[in-house]
Amino acid sequence: MPATTPETTPADPTARAARSVLVTGANRGIGRAIAERFVAAGDRVATIVRSGGAPDGVLEVIGDVRDTASVDAAFTQVEAAHGPVEVLVANAGVTRDGLLMRMTDEDFADVIDVNLTGAFRVVRRASKGMIRLRRGRIVLISSVVGMYGSPGQVNYASSKSALVGMARSVTRELGGRGITANVVAPGFIDTDMTKALPEDRQQAYLGSIPAGRFGHADEVAAAVQFLASDDAAYVSGAVLPVDGGLGMGH
């Protein structure tokens, strides 16, 4: 029997073609871990960031989710390099914490504009290509705060909670076209922001988490990767908490 040559080797039935993946805000923290995980899986990954610092192997496009024209230009650049976006992870976010009575209109509006309206802008733009392809995965990065509430974060909690309504409305509109839209809600994750908290504050937070520890960014990335996979084709409009049990029942 002749030896098998590379030309006649059967294709691996489990192999998956590389996809065009866009993760907003992948220059640090959770977004960076998400982008790195898709790169490791062999996907073509891009990010939209306001400043540099994307992981190795990620196409970095400078843009601003607060501006529709900037979003459109960034998508055009990504599409030219990688093809239509098949997986969108809306991760870019900011905080402007402050107690309700002291929070300014600007502090509230700025957070909503990036975290909520920014997500809307990238979802709207990505949906055009996904509708033509008749397939797509949209994952919105929320927070346990959006389900649980947090003093001093009326703006942030409002923006993150609203992403649930966005994902479910997109599911109602586009679910019949092979497009899913889901939410991942991380809890307290071991990032530079968490490490900067005073030790007593960290201990107080740890005491409220049933798992007894902070999460890792890669654990959030794993949840995102699942929702973007073929295995999650029948999961849409869902909220997947990655919070060690902190937000149970919310």
Automatic annotation (TrEMBL):
InterPro entries: KR_dom (IPR057326), NAD(P)-bd_dom_sf (IPR036291), SDR (IPR050259), SDR_fam (IPR002347). Residues 19-192 form the Ketoreductase domain. It comes from the Bacteria. Belongs to the short-chain dehydrogenases/reductases (SDR) family. This is 3-oxoacyl-ACP reductase FabG. It comes from Cellulomonas avistercoris.
